Amino acid sequence: MVKSMTLKMNDGREIPVIGLGTYTSQGKTDECRLSVETAISCGYRHIDAAAIYKNEDEVGQGINNMIKKGVVTRGEIFLATKLWNDQHEEQKVVPALKASLKRLGLSYVDLYLVHFPLAINADGSHSDVDYLETWRGMEKCKELGLAKSIGVSNFNPQQLERLLNNCKVIPAVNQVEAHPNLTQKKIIEYCKSKNIVLTAWSPFGAMPEIRDRTRAPPAPKIDDPILTVMAKKYNKTTTQIVLRYLIDCGMAPLPKSITPTRIAQNIDVFDFALTPEEVKKIDEFNTGFRVHKEHEELWKDHKHYPF
Ligand SMILES: NC(=O)c1ccc[n+]([C@@H]2O[C@H](COP(=O)([O-])OP(=O)(O)OC[C@H]3O[C@@H](n4cnc5c(N)ncnc54)[C@H](OP(=O)(O)O)[C@@H]3O)[C@@H](O)[C@H]2O)c1
Question: Nearest Cα to 149, choosing from 15, 29, 7?
C-alpha cells in the first residue's frame, strides 16, 4: 500500500496529493463504488466527487464499506465534492451540500468546491448570480461544520483576486485542468503567492488514447519518446511520469481510473522525482489545449466565463 504525500492548506489542514477522480465512473456496474474501494485498498485517502457526476451515492457507499471493513476511519479520508452551477444563490448552497451529504451517506465533507465561477438556471440558461454571493453560502457551510475546508474550481487569477478581496474565508483550493498540454504556469504562480493549493483535473489531458484525438494536439501520446526515456530511467510508465510532473510543479493531481492495475499505478509516484530539466522538457508540450470543448460551446458568452 502506498502512502500519499500531503500538502498543507491555508486553513492548516492537509490534503493528500493524489486523489481519485470519479467523473464518468457511474452507473450500471457499480464501477464507481468498486474504484473507490480499490483505491482505498491501494492507499488513496483523497477522493474527488461532484454533485453533477451523479455518482455521490456510489462514492459514499465505497467509502462507508471500507470504513465498515475497518480499512480506514472517516477521519483518514479526504472527500471533496462540488456545488453545481445551478445552485449558486446564497440560500441554495447549504441545502445543496446537505443533499450531497445525504447521497454520500456522510455527515461532513473535507472539501466543498464551487465547481465553476459561472451560474446557470435550472434550464441551463445563463444566470447573473455573482460568485461572491455563492461564496457567502460556502462560508456558511464551513461555519456549520458541513465542510471542513472550502474552495473553488475553474477560477482564473482575476476571479480569485476579486474573491480574495471580498471574502471572510480565503479559498483553500482551486481545482483546475492541468496536464502537459495545459501547464497553467500563471495560475500556479498566482495560487502559490496566495497560499492556495491547486488540484489538477484531467491530469492525462489528451494522452490516454480514449480521448478524441481528432482535435487533440499531436503530443504527448502515451508512447511519447521524451516521456518514454524518463519512464525507462525511473522504471515507471509514461502516465506515472505525467502525474509526477504535476506534483513536481506543486499541484495535486486527480487521476480517474476504474481499472485496478491503473488505480494502483497512479498512486505509485512517491519514490522518485523529476529533475528541473525534465520538468522543463515536459513544460514544452504546452499548447493551451483544453479537454472539454463543450465548456466553451456552452458558456463562452457568460460574463463569468473563466477561460
Ligand atoms: N473541476 C472540474 O471541472 C473537473 C472537470 C473534469 C474532471 N474533474 C475531476 O478530475 C478527474 C480526472 O479527470 P478525467 O476523468 O477527465 O481524466 P483523466 O484522469 O486525465 O483520465 C481518465 C482516463 O485515463 C484512463 N487512465 C487512467 N489511468 C491510466 C493509466 N495509468 N494508464 C492509461 N490510461 C489511464 C482512464 O481509463 P480507465 O478508467 O478505463 O482506467 C480514463 O479513460 C475527474 O474524474 C474528476 O474527478 C474535475
Answer: 15
CATH number at residue 286: 3.20.20.100
Whether the CB-CB separation of 181 and 288 falls below 8 Å is answered with yes
DSSP string, 16-54: ES-EEE-TT--STT-HHHHHHHHHHHHT--EEE--GGGT
Could you report the per-residue pLDDT of 105-124, keeping only the tens digit for each?
999 999 999 999 999 999 99
**Ligand 1 centre distance from Cα of residue 255 (Å):** 5
- Taking the CA of residue 263 as reference, the ligand 1 atom at the shortest distance is 28
| 3-class secondary structure, 261 | helix
**Using one digit for the tens of pLDDT, what is the confidence trace for 53-79?**
999 999 999 999 999 999 999 999 999
Range of the domain at 131: 8-299
Domain assignment present for residue 304? The answer is no
